[in-house]
Amino acid sequence: MAEPSTAEAPILHQAESDPHGFVRANTAVAAPPLVPELRLHLASEVVPLWHMTEAELNATGLPPPYWAFAWAGGQALARHVLDHPEVVRDRRVLDFGAGSGLVGLAAARAGAAHVTAAEIDRFAGVAIALNAELNGLAVEIVVDDLVGRPPAWDVVLAADICYERPAAERIETWLRDLARAGTLVLIGDPGRLYLPKQGLECLATYSVATTRELEDTDLRRTSVWQVLVP
């Protein structure tokens, strides 16, 4: 890996020495368009993280900051949970691939008995903790790959997980195993290429406002799907 440039080095140093400060410095507090009930630390045009390319991030040794954006699938799934709190009320909920933690926070707000937000990116874990504090909600944060773990939740919520084929297929196999074990599994997805073509039931569809910095459109049609048991 190339050494970070003079401009990149302070970002790397801050991220390593003060991850909470790094998240705060590179985000602004805002409510996602479809979920105004919750506020998140999000990247925007006014903060440096927004303008960094993937190559620049790689040069710093930092993973892409997926946690800094309210992706369409997560917004739709969070909206569905808030509009239908009976889905999670008094249940143990896993927000898988949690990113900013938006979906898990929606579940906590809707009355879940316990929410676990799982991510493999430690900076996402920091962002989730800050977002939970910001909204006065409690979630358990796990920074680990949970794929393959036996069922330990009543409900699993997974948004924006169908970007890359190998990962999507691996996750799909696990989610179907959980559904067969009796777990309610819901997926939020804006029509990504590797969303399974069968074995899903569409529960709701939303039009989610997006930005062309992230998507190829200003409004993305996004659905909430339930994983069915064969």
Report on the architecture of this protein.
- The chain is an alpha/beta fold and 230 residues long.
- It has helices at 9-17, 19-25, 48-51, 54-60, 72-83, 102-109, 122-135, 165-180; strands at residues 28-30, 40-42, 92-96, 114-119, 140-143, 155-159, 184-189, 200-209, 219-227.
- The strands form two sheets. Strands 5-4-3-6-7-9-8 form a seven-stranded mixed sheet, with helices on both faces. The protein has a two-stranded antiparallel ribbon with strand order 1-2.
- Helix 8 (165-180) links the parallel strand 6 (155-159) and strand 7.
- The radius of gyration is 17 Å and the shape is globular.
- Residues 1-10 have low confidence and may be disordered.
Please give the structural blueprint.
Elements: H1 9-17, H2 19-25, E1 28-30, E2 40-42, H3 48-51, H4 54-60, H5 72-83, E3 92-96, H6 102-109, E4 114-119, H7 122-135, E5 140-143, E6 155-159, H8 165-180, E7 184-189, E8 200-209, E9 219-227
Parallel strand pairs: 3-4, 3-6, 4-5, 6-7
Antiparallel strand pairs: 1-2, 7-9, 8-9
Helix pairs in contact: 1-2, 5-6
**Mean pLDDT figure:** 88
Tally of helical segments:
8
Beta percentage is 15-25%
Which strands sit side by side, in order, in the main sheet? 5-4-3-6-7-9-8
Shape descriptor: globular
Element-by-element helix/strand order: HHEEHHHEHEHEEHEEE
Q: Structural class, please? A: alpha/beta
Which percent bin holds the helix content?
A: 25-40%
Short description:
33% of the residues lie in helices and 22% in strands. It has eight helices and nine strands.
